Amino acid sequence: MPPDMRRLLVTLAALAAAPQAPHPPGVLITTRPRVPRQGSLVELRVTPPKHDDSVVAVSGELAGEPLHFEPAPRRGGRFRALGGVPLDAPDTIAVRLELHRATGVVDTELVPLPVSRRRAVVDRVTTAPRFAEEPDSAVTARIAVERELAHRVARGAHDIPRLWVKPFVRPRPRASRVTSPFGAQREVNGVLGARHAGVDISGPAGAPVRVANRGVVALVGDFFFGGISVYVYHGAGLVTAYHHLSSAAVAIGDTVERGEVIGRVGATGRVTGPHLHWGAQYGRLSVDPAGLLTLLAARPD
Question: What's the CATH code, domain 3-114?
Answer without folding.
Answer: 2.60.40
